[in-house]
Amino acid sequence: MTYFVLNIELKVTMAKDVRQYTEVRRSKHKNLPGPYSMTEEVLQERAKKINPGRFMTQAFAGIVASVSSVSFGTVLGWSSPAVRIAIDKVYRGEETLNPAFDLSWVASLGPLGCALGVPVWSYFNIKLGPKRTMLIQSPLLFLTWALIANAEENVQGKDINLELAMRFFCGFFAISNRICGETLLQDAVHKHYLMRMVIPYRSSVNLGVLITYCLAYSISEQYFAIVNCVIVVIHFILLIISPESPVYLYDKNLKKAEASLSWYRGKSNVYVEMRNIKKDSDIRKLDQAAYKYMLFSKVVVID
After folding, report:
1. Entry pTM
2. Considering only CA atoms, which of 221, 202, 219 is closest in space to residue 73?
3. Which domains does the chain have, with CATH numbers?
């Protein structure tokens, strides 16, 4: 009998403890919505909270893109001082130049190479990815600048046909830095940080032009070409460290795309960001289809 009474009292005590624990839990969480009691206002407040991910690695992607933009700016800005330097060399008798013909080529070959390189490197940007495309063209751009430096050293007193050809290829190769650098920046950086990093990226073109104007009249063209070789090497090293674009990798290998996205933005919100990457990948497929249509479709002209 005593055992029965003690057992009842123990059960009553345990029930009171459970009831008190439940009341304490309810009092602590009474202001929190349950899983099925979310209101539209609560969902909107949660949607407003932005998790842009890790800043440092995304800033690194911005630096890579900015260096590629500087490399392009040095090529773009060379047209103006190149004409002045060519005229000075003609007057000093160091080069033979037909002013009526060659001066226009000196000024225009770099931009002409850029214009012709746009469709080529846009195609490789889609097919090979922005990082791999820049890794392929960087040794070619380095070789072009090295040939210009060598021509300045060994072709004194002769014509400048070799240098003119290299100026064209400088523009042809450098435009890929502009195309692929911007693609890598947009794919790797969250839109919350992107609006801050686009400004230094686009300003870096002007920085490259400014470097050209400052160095072109203060050092020889040979040393200026060597400076550009150094910029290309720095850019190449930064590219080796950086992963490929996660948007490009999404259709190739999901694990590599997730690893790339985690490297750039961190793992805190990677699954949500992968859904956004899928949208970007689908949009790029439409761009690729439009690119093929523009180049290879038959055009009907109606008068």
Report:
1. 0.73
2. 202
3. 55-264 (1.20.1250.20)
